[in-house]
Fold this sequence. Notes:
It is built from 10 helices and 8 strands. By secondary structure, it is of the alpha+beta class. The protein folds into 2 domains: 25-66 and 119-287 and 331-446, Outer membrane efflux proteins (OEP) (Up-down Bundle); 68-117 and 290-324.
Amino acid sequence: MNRFITLILLFIFTHIGYSQQTKVITNLTLEKAIEIALRENPQIKIAHMEKEKSAARITEAFSGLFPNISTEGTYIYNIKKPVFFLPDFFGGTGKVTPIEIGSKSSYVAALQFGLPLFMGQIYSGIVISKIGLELSNISYDETIAQVRLNTKKAFLDVLLLKESQNVLIKSYENALSNLENAEKMHKEGLLSDFELLSAQVEVEKIKPTILQTENNLETALNFLKSLLNLNVEDSISVIGELKYQPGLSDEIFSNESLVNNSYSLLKLGLQKQMADKNIMLQKWGHYPSLTAFGNYQVQTQAEDFEFKNYRWVKSSSVGFTLSIPIFAGFGVASRIEQAEIASKQLEETISLTKKQLSIAIGNIKNSINTSVEKISVQKLNKEKALRNYQIAELRYKEGMSTQLEISNANVNLLSAELGYATAVYEYHVAQAELEFYKNYSQRSFNN
């Protein structure tokens, strides 16, 4: 009995905790979805952290110009004292006598100082780290634009599937209404068994499509949830509809402008700059470096641990170290060659990316123009299909047409309405994709 009560309490508290964790978002508009995505999407958070890492790398690069100060202490206990050998200068025997030196205990404390006066690698590293920060800033902007685009497309997917679901339900209702009329006419002997069966089949064949659309809608909603950083168990209710609204003129944004200001090309340009600076960084391996140093040391030795009686000896020194590379096994030359090849690879990548982007942007603009024409055609087709269905329904009720005629009219109306919704969807998706490329061009144009 106690075990049964424990299970009930566990079940209750588990579900209370579950319900508290579940989020519910109602009346979710496209603007609100984008706002949530830009605030909560993990990709944006990761990209922002990358910006912070790049800023930290600049500080790290500049640290090479500052003095390097360190301190260390050493204690040595001589189990066997070190010796030096004293020759027999006067006896002529040729023998040497070992003489112990030092004490059992040795203490050394040192303060060391180093300052690079000329080291080209440091300056090249600073320049590269600054370019890296600029690169991470553009990557961050690209991530924001990509999340915005993905959210728009996911939201449009949901709207299209909701519209498709509504159209299918309307078509199903039309088929049910037609079936009711068919059953009445069949009872009155005005309709054959074959036509009644055809009306029944017309109703049943729409059901699987409705179920599949419901499943697709649930999948689309789950993907939208992932972009908003929500769990599958969370609930969202999307509002909005697919409407055609002509976009602004894109004449000020030529294909060349969109290509040159695209995130991909801007990032590749910065990567090319980093590759060129890396060539110089590797070449510094052939040049000398100059470093200043200083050392302050305190030491003593003793046979006991009576610290107050120790005599501490102090010493200090300053100087310069000039390092001139002479031969390093062709390692520097090899690294320079690798850096030059990497720069040439980026040149080819930039050229290839320009061509690919030009084709992609051209295809998007063609898609927009095509979808605009399709919208116009599908709108007229939808109006005609609706009128045709209304006429067929009236003729069928008056016994002037067959079941096949009204069935075809219903299918044509369904196809026309889905075709129009799809054309509007394709238009908005293409506009969103073009907006992704216009984003940086717009900034450059305004500046």
